[in-house]
Amino acid sequence: LAQRLHGLGTTIFAEMSALAVRTGSVNLGQGFPDTDGPDSILEDAIQAIRGGANQYPPGRGIPALRLAIAAHQDRFYGLKYDPDTQVLVTTGATEAIAAALLAYVEPGDEVIALEPYYDSYAAGIALAGGKRVPVTLRAPDFRLDLDELRAAVTDRTTVLLINSPHNPTGTVLTDDELRGIAALAVERDLVVITDEVYEHLVFDGGRHIPLASYEGMAERTVSIGSAGKTFSVTGWKIGWVTGTPEVVTAVTTAKQFLTYVSGAPFQPAIAGALALGNDYFDGFRATMQAKRDRLCDGLSALGFGVFRPQGTYFVTTDVRPLGFTDGIEFCRMLPEKAGVVAIPHQVFYDNVEAGRPLVRWAFCKQDEVIDEALTRLAKL
Length: 380
Ligand code: PMP
Ligand code: GLN
Description:
Blueprint: H1 12-23, E1 26-27, H2 39-50, H3 63-77, E2 87-90, H4 92-104, E3 110-115, H5 119-127, E4 131-136, H6 146-152, E5 157-163, H7 175-187, E6 191-195, E7 221-226, H8 227-230, E8 239-242, H9 245-258, H10 266-274, H11 278-301, E9 305-307, E10 314-318, H12 327-338, E11 340-341, E12 343-344, H13 352-355, E13 358-362, H14 367-377
Parallel strand pairs: 1-11, 3-4, 3-5, 5-6, 6-7
Antiparallel strand pairs: 2-8, 7-8, 9-10, 10-13, 12-13
Helix pairs in contact: 2-10, 3-10, 4-5, 4-9, 11-14
Bound molecules: 4'-deoxy-4'-aminopyridoxal-5'-phosphate (PMP) and glutamine (GLN).
4'-deoxy-4'-aminopyridoxal-5'-phosphate binds near residues 118, 197 and 234.
C-alpha cells in the first residue's frame, strides 16, 4: 500500500453504518436522510432515464444544470457566474474537494483545515501529498479563533480549507470570522477551498454567507456545493464547483481524470430542484430545525451535554455528564448496550484530546426514528 494511503483505513461512516445494520441499531451516525427528496425531482430522474440520458454527459455538466447552479448562486447570494466557464458539476462534493486539492496542492505544501474536519479532507490532502495543519474549534462554542488561524499560516501554506456550516460541530461562521479569513487569505495570497454543502441548513433566522462574496475572494476561492444535502438525495452524488474560469479549469483538469463526468440522469433532475420555490428551501430548513430541537431536547433530558448547532443536520454532545470519558469507547459500546449508533468526534482530529469526550448525532431522520433512539438511550 502506498505511503500516502497509510493511516486512512475505512471511513468511520462506512464502519458505523455497517455496525448499525449488524446490530439492528437506530443509525444516527452517518449523515443521510431517511426520507428521499421531493417526489417531483425523483420523477424527473426517472423520466431522464426513460428519455435517454444514459450516456456520458458533457464533462463540465449538462448546460441546464450549470445554468441552474449559476442561477441559484445569483438568487441566494447575488454572486454572478458564467455557466459556460465558471461552473463545474462534480460527483458529489467529495470529488470536488479531492479535485480542488489535487489542483492546488504541491507535495509538501501545508493545507490548513478547521478541526474537527470532515474525514475526506484528511484523505484528500494526503492524496495530493500535502501536509494537514489543523486549527481547532473548541467546545463549548466551537468558534474560530482568528489569531490561531493567522498563527498557523507559514511560508509553506498554500490552501485554506474552510467548511461552514461546519460538520460535525454545527458552527456557522459569522460575518466577522469570514471577513477575517478573507483578509488573511488576501494578505498571504492563499487559495481558499470552501465547503458549503450545508448552505441551506442555517437555523434560528441566521444566514449563510459564501466566502466568495468577500472582497478579494472571487479570484482565489473554490466554492463547493452539493445536491445531496439540500434535496435529500445523498446517493445521487451530484456536487459542484463555482469560481473564476481559471479556478474551474484547474479543478476540471483533475476532475476529468478522476471520474471524467458525473451521473447523467441526475443532472436534469437537480437542475429542476435548484429552481424550486423558496417554500421548498424554507420548508426543508424549518423541518430540520424542528428535528434539531427534538433530538437536542431529548439528549439534554437524558443528561448529555448538548451543543445545539446553528447549522447542518448534526448535533455534538459531551458524554462526560453520563460518566463516560471517551467517545470512541462510548460509540463502540452504544449499539450493544442501547441499539443506537453515533459517531465519535475523535476521528476528525489530529489533536484528539480536544475531541475525546465528544459524540455526533444526525437528526435528518423521521421523528419516530429520533424518538425511538431517545427511548433506547434512556436505558443506558
Ligand atoms: N462535505 C461535508 C462537510 C459533508 O458533510 C459531506 C457529506 N456528508 C460532504 C462534503 C460530501 O458531500 P457529497 O455527498 O456531495 O460528496
Ligand atoms: N457527510 C456525511 C456525514 O458526515 C457522510 C458522508 C459519507 O459517508 N462519506 O455523516
